[in-house]
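Hello again, I could really use a second opinion on something today. I've been staring at a protein lately and its backbone has me curious. You're getting the sequence in one-letter code plus the fold written as tokens. I'd be grateful if you could look everything over and explain what you see. No rush at all, and the record is pasted right below:
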Amino acid sequence: MVMAVILAAPGSSQIPDQQKRNHLMNTIRLLPLFLIFCSPAFAIGPEPSGESGAKSPAENVREIIDTPVHLWHSDRSERGCWIKKENAMLFGPGKKRNGADAALDQLDRWETSKTVISFDPAPQKAHQSKPELKAAQPPPAKQVLFSAVKLTINGRPAFIMKSPKSMAGKPWVFYAATLPAYPDKAESWMHQSFLAKGISIAGIDVGEAYGSPKAFPQFEALYQKMVGMGYSTKPVLLGRSRGGLWVSSWAIKHPDRVKAIAGIYPAYDFTTYPGLKRAAPAYGLSPDELKSQPTALNPIEKMDVLAKAKIPVHIIHGIDDQVIPIAENSDRLQSIYQKNGAGDLMTLNRIKAQGHSFWPGFFRSQDLVDFVIKEASPARDR
């Protein structure tokens, strides 16, 4: 019906054939959106909280839209795609990869928008089976490394990006979170800037550890490997997103081995990200058990150790971050430093109108790069 109305529009006979074809293709692309908007089950609004006894939200999603759309968002025009998340469709930045839009499978790679399409439960007939709906999955992402040596330490994959420039003391950056997809292309300029100044970079994949002490043996093995190769006994720690949990927990245990800490929208409070339910398995506890031991296990509750050790910190964080809220993480760390008389040792660059995204300013922050280079220098040895 939609196609018939458009093709029969007045004056269509005067439109050149090529424009007609383009018009037709655009109509076909937008047809799934039109059908959803026309559905009585469609509503725009906040993501529903659900009621006791309700069906699984995933079972109520009637269609997944993987057509790229164009949306005005956060005062700027972005290209992205709709992605299923529980009982809602979220708009996130992304691009086509092998014919499928990137899925919202790693929250820290997305800026979740306030634009939400929510679906009410659709009635099901008793004899009908419910179709299994799956979000389009992207191809496996790959690390982006430079002048790198890949190795296995304690049975875990690790890397060392060796600076081609010789520098006294062999400074290095302890990077986290190292995962199959990280570090990625977004961090290339930053890492190349470190390498050009004689600073090497190393990291080890400990899986989704979320700051758990279970990762410490692997961190220790990487540290001893680097020191054994002549590198500094005090690296600068750099934690991106959930990597903040990695580096802060290790720094709290070994403040004497840390020169400084840098962070890009870092998580320090595991109750905000990834949340107790996801973090608990990494600690070998139930969510309730983990919740009952905040001062013993949650890094943010022990950050006074770093402030008292006078460890410099530099963070860049978006104030609109909905994945890792700035208030409970970076803002709180700054407050802890101030209460311990070390406020002058911490810089927090609060970015307006930015959330948890690939905004280039997060990864091309000259202030953050200069901080790491300055603190890594042998002249800063304390």
